[in-house]
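look at this fold:
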Amino acid sequence: ADVPYTRVIEHKHFEMFGEDVDACPKTIISKEFSTEWKDGMEPYYPINDVENNGLYQKYKALADSNNQYIFGGRLAEYKYYDMAPVVELVLNRWK
C-alpha cells in the first residue's frame, strides 16, 4: 500500500474484545510515521553496522554462557521483528 505511515493502531482493540468492540461507537487511532534517526533521538530499530554487530556478538556470547535466563525478541537477536513472529518465537522456545 502506498501510505505515508508505518502502521495504524485502533486502540479499542487492545482494551475490548468481541461484542464490546462492535458496540463501541467511537474510537481512537494512532498513526506511526518513520523518520531517519538523528543524533539526540531515541533509536527504535537496530542499526546494522560493524560496531553494533560486534557489540551484539559480545552480548550474545555472554547470554549464551548463562542458562538462567532466556532472551528473545528484537533486543535478544538484534533484529527487527513484527509482533506476530516474536510471539511465535517465544511459544516455540517455551516448548
